[in-house]
Specification:
The protein has 13 helices and 8 strands. It is mainly α and about 350 residues long. Strand 7 and strand 8 form a beta hairpin.
Length: about 350
């Protein structure tokens, strides 16, 4: 009788150990088996959803055979309270273990928006509003009240105060948070440029440097000319000369206007750098890092003028006479009658 009882007990122990081994292997296999996917998918973890809901959704998709396995693993690893809402990429070869850890780290899918150098704040707002993965800003937010919405009470005008760059964010991000990041970045870059400025710089404040950088940004897209363009403007400011730059006038025109009439050139207003000396009252665009640096540390040059060659580059001149000749050559097709000069044959 004792031998039978011992045999039964041995059998029970063996069966229990076998079942435990099978459960353990089955548990590991579910966690480590790649999810069955032909192509990448997205998994959205909504705010408020916990480990139990996630495990059930995994089981419904066939990524784990039993929801309990993933839930047990998550609780044993302390993952349950660390899950972060967002959109996650699920790629072929990924395991449930990989994905649950990605959710604990918050490795959400990153979307992007590029704000190019030289855009206006109005253009940046339009891009933010149209991005499919951003929320807002609402139509009621515009240039007129943007500072109030962002609680930037120390500023008077939003133009220029957002750094052009590529910004990454998760799905359903509030667009205004992207603008806040861009503003913090611009403050940091402007502070660096101001601290690095040349001695005897003619501008009197970081804000004036921002205005100057925005003009430089709009005047040239060529990196090899940016410092020299900055040198021209700095030289003119030091001599009390008017900047005479078209982009400041174009800034207050209707969107899309590319050419200025003689009447517009003669019409006096704060942004007309042909009729008024000094800088305009605000920036005219969003300057990038290179334009800020050029404004702070312009090229050492005696140039006072430049004119477009029509190919994206500029001809620089130290004297008005040389500049006039360049205008006739590159802008007027050799016709000097505008300056009372008889055409050469």
């Amino acid at each position: 009788m004792k031998r039978i009882s011992l045999a039964v007990l041995t059998l029970v122990v063996v069966l229990a150990l076998g079942a435990s081994w099978w459960l353990s292997e089955h548990y590991r296999a579910q966690l480590n088996a790649p999810v069955e996917l032909e192509m990448a998918e997205r998994f959205e973890l909504a705010s408020g959803q916990g480990l139990r809901q996630v495990s059930r959704r995994f089981a419904e998709r066939g990524w784990v055979e039993s929801a309990w396995a993933l839930e047990l693993y998550g609780r044993r690893q302390g993952i349950a309270p660390r899950l972060q809402a967002g959109e996650y990429a699920v790629t072929p070869g990924m395991t449930p273990r990989d994905l649950i850890h990605a959710m604990a780290r918050g490795d959400v899918v990153q979307h992007r928006l590029t704000i190019p150098e030289g855009w206006t704040v109005r253009q940046a707002l339009a891009a933010l509003r149209s991005h499919p993965e951003l929320v807002g800003p609402p139509e009621s937010v515009g240039v007129h009240n943007l500072l109030e919405v962002l609680e930037l009470d120390d500023l008077e005008h939003p133009e220029g105060w957002f750094l052009p760059d590529t910004y990454f964010f998760g799905s359903a991000t509030d667009a205004l948070t992207v603008l806040q990041r861009a503003h913090r970045s611009m403050r940091m870059q402007l502070e660096r440029a101001w601290e690095d400025r040349i001695e005897d710089h003619p501008v009197e404040s970081p804000y004036d440097l921002l205005i100057l950088a925005s003009i430089i940004e709009r005047e040239t897209g060529r990196g090899d000319e940016r410092d020299r363009v900055a040198g021209v403007f700095v030289n003119r400011l030091q001599r009390g000369m008017r900047l005479q730059t078209d982009p400041t006038l174009l800034y207050v025109q209707e969107p899309g206007v590319q050419r200025l009439t003689r009447a517009e050139l003669d019409r006096d207003h704060p942004y007309n750098t042909y009729t008024r000396a000094g800088l305009p009252p605000t920036p005219i665009a969003l300057p990038g890092r290179a334009a800020l640096q050029a404004a702070a540390r312009p090229a050492e040059t005696d140039d006072l003028f430049f004119v477009s060659r029509g190919d994206g580059s500029h001809h620089f001149s130290e004297t008005y006479r040389e500049h006039r000749e360049a205008v006739i050559r590159y802008q007027l097709g050799g016709d000097g009658t505008r300056y009372g000069i008889r055409n050469r044959r």
